[in-house]
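Slides due. Your pick:
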Amino acid sequence: MEIIWYHPTFDEQAWINGLQRRLPQANVRRWQPGDNAPADYALVRSPPPEMLQGRRDLQAVFAIGAGVDDILLQLQRYPDMLAPGVPLFRLEDTGMSLQMQEYAVHTVLRWFRRFDDYQLQQQQALWQHLPGYQRDSFTIGILGAGVLGASVAASLRPWGFPLRCWSRSAKAIAGVASFHGAEQLHDFLADSRVLINLLPATPETAGIINRDLLQKLPDGAFVLNLARGAHLVEEDLLAALDEGKIKAAALDVFQREPLTEDHPFWSHPRVAITPHNAAVTLPEEAMDYIAGAIRQLVAGGEPKGRVDLTRGY
């Protein structure tokens, strides 16, 4: 079994050694330009098109990450990059769900307990008690009801907040009110005091968090973007913050990364920023999944995480 690996920043030797331990029957090598030798499986992040082009022998491609937008963008530019019928798999839950849960719970509780307001008061040396929010009206709305959306909803359920989710097609999550399709988006937004974005990155979802959507939220709502920068129209969010329509935002992803030094998000008192690290790929967990998935494929099975190329997730 031949496996080719490519990632622009990860520790090459750690991954090759780790995969070799898990799949001793395989020969794992880092792909280099000009390497056209046979390969049964490819493990990639932002692969150069020539890495995969013309490979009719590939049994599957694994994206080293939860998102596959980098590969889908390449496929738009180079439709022949993947041979017809070659399945693409993403890391569905390899420690990322827990990280997303931590981020979401921390941020929601910070807003609910008004710790953001107290932090601003501290900067003014102001000692003042603030009235609390009512839990039963502090509704959390989650855009996206996939693996990560369902996981974040489950982590928030014990705190007693009303929970709702919205997705393109109908999904059912225990203890969560479900909305789907364009016709139900308005109703979903109307009572969502906190909007958490965990949508997949597709052409249909690009720019979905725009002025029109933000205006449908309750006055003084909060926005947490954990998915992709392309989902958010940054100028519209800034305007909504300055108008007071949106009270605060926490952002982990941006249209351009790294965020430019002169971007107004840096200095906005109601914006919290993290450098796209809400959920990072954990190598050991990721290699466990990939090795197990390859064993399933060899045995004729169908691993979880297969991407529908027409939908983009």
In short: The chain has a mean pLDDT of 96. The CA atoms of residues 15 and 283 lie 7 Å apart. The radius of gyration is 21 Å.
